[in-house]
Amino acid sequence: MKAIIFDIGSTFTKGVAFDLDKSEIIGRAKYPSTVNEDVTIGLQNVISEIERQTGLNIRDFNIKKATSSAAGGLKIIAIGLVPDLTTEAAKKASLGAGGKVIKIYSYELTSSDLDEILYLKPDIIILAGGTDGGNRYYPIINAKKLSRLPLNIPFIYAGNKDLQDEIKNIFLSNSKEIYITENVMPEYGVINIEKVQNIIREVFLRNIIHAKGLDKVQEIIDGIVMPTPLAVLKGLESFSEIYGECLLIDVGGATTDVCSVAKGEPTQNNVILKGLKEPYVKRSVEGDLGVRVSALSLFESAKKDIIKSFSHDKVKVIEEKVKFLNINTSYIPKNDEDLHLDAILAYFAVKIATERHVGHIEMVYTPMGTLLFQYGKDLRELDKVVCTGGPLIYNPYRVESLKGVIYSNDEPFILKPKNPTFYVDKEYIMFAIGVISEIYKDKSMSLVEKYINKV
Amino acid sequence: MGERTVVLGVIGADVHAVGLRILDYALRSAGFDVVNIGVLSSQEDFIKAAIESDARAILVSSLYGHAELDCRGFREKLQEAGLDNVLLYIGGNLGIGQKNWEEVEKKFKELGFNRVYPPKTMPDEVIRDLKKDLGLDK
What we know:
The structure holds two protein chains of two kinds.
Chain A: E1 2-8, E2 12-19, E3 24-32, H1 39-54, E4 63-68, E5 75-79, H2 83-96, E6 100-105, H3 111-120, E7 124-127, H4 137-147, E8 155-157, H5 164-173, E9 178-180, H6 194-211, E10 223-227, H7 228-243, E11 246-251, E12 256-261, E13 271-274, E14 281-286, H8 295-306, H9 315-327, H10 336-357, E15 360-366, E16 369-375, E17 384-388, H11 390-393, H12 398-402, E18 421-425, H13 430-437, H14 441-451, E19 452-454
Parallel strand pairs in A: 1-4, 4-10, 5-6, 5-7, 7-8, 8-9, 11-17, 13-16, 17-18
Antiparallel strand pairs in A: 1-2, 2-3, 11-12, 12-14, 15-16, 18-19
Helix pairs in contact in A: 4-5, 7-13, 7-14, 8-10, 13-14
Chain B: E1 5-11, H1 18-29, E2 33-41, H2 43-53, E3 57-62, H3 67-71, H4 74-80, E4 87-92, H5 101-110, E5 115-117, H6 123-133
Parallel strand pairs in B: 1-2, 1-3, 3-4, 4-5
């Protein structure tokens, strides 16, 4: 059985061909995405190249599917009530569905918020707020305001269930497309994101592909089945079926993604869990950490530490280089110096993104003695870390970059893995494994065993 | 939920959970919708839970003697959050020693609490007051 899986990205369309019976990669190609003119041009070029490599015709492939992060990815705006309750839950749901959360809002939307929403051009808006039987005011008022926007996109309501009918009517009477699903927080502190994630996927398949002009590919292949980040997450789930709890770091030019498949329960005595419970499969995305478009913002946030790696007289040069990378986003490092700088930037992207993903412990001094509050996941005992993304796959100094994942005694309350084994997605096929896992779980696991190797 | 929703919790660094469970059980049995936020809760935890759940009352429990410190500014924060109409009750060991209950009660009333209960208060009394204050005792 043969499969060919594509990733239609913002800059490149990539394709990987597999012989699933032998668990083998039999061809691969990439070509600049041509989303703005006709997405099928890039796709056809990739197909021709793979046909040439394999001697097969595209019709010979039993599975022909694609993921997409083209045209800015799946841009979601999440709206909730209290920032660290329903807003946070709505945000977590969106990220876990492979979306790109471009903005979050809490409480009542103001007119400037509404202007901003129009300006940001989201693909989907998720409205939450209130526990079941809880707050009625905010979801209703926000629904009214949103439904009057000149915005022809799907809305998803995942708030207080008592308001479902009313909210539906508000949107329908303004001729808006509205999907109603279970509350992201049915009870205080209980997070329920699976249903809304399914709806996001459904909306992605039904609307977004068309809206972004990607539906033409359906004439050539079986279709775009999910956003690329979701495919990567599913690939990681296949990995975890074999190796157990794990973490994935994906450093890119614009963002750094971190995903964990782990419970993250306390590993030490006397800690008290606080805050919202984390989903077992959790994804976080840092839009300010990357080695190209986001190189400058990364540099700004870690400048003090980054320049420590260089001699004093070099600092100006490094600063200029970072500015260069910020503009020349497809630049591939050529000499040792550039590779070294990329590795250092990647180290800080990894370090900061991991710190934001994992939980932390807060020490509180009280009349009852010292108490330890744990927020988020404790991943200190987690021992498998998968790395992917250009700088972590191809850079010869990547081992240095990966050290950013590891727990540090200098920051004992940041619950990063203490002694992980690193695995690398050396063929850059995590997304393809994810797509295949939905069709043949066992075959996706064979691919993991074969191609996701220890560093 | 709605007119019968109350938020329940132990404030501050206090970890006394038993009384909270009893109150939780009694209130549910009396038909209330209880959002129990547990021990070690801050004023903010109570307020956030009350906003999301649209609670009509917040019931604060404190047993370890630091209630006054933990509760300063609570009513003002509720007002800031737009929850002016939410009832605020407190019960437990509200002052070390508690020699003069009237004084303790007065102090907490001044802090903006609608009802203040001494130790050994039975849940029935609280439930009766709640129904009365919320206009549910018809």
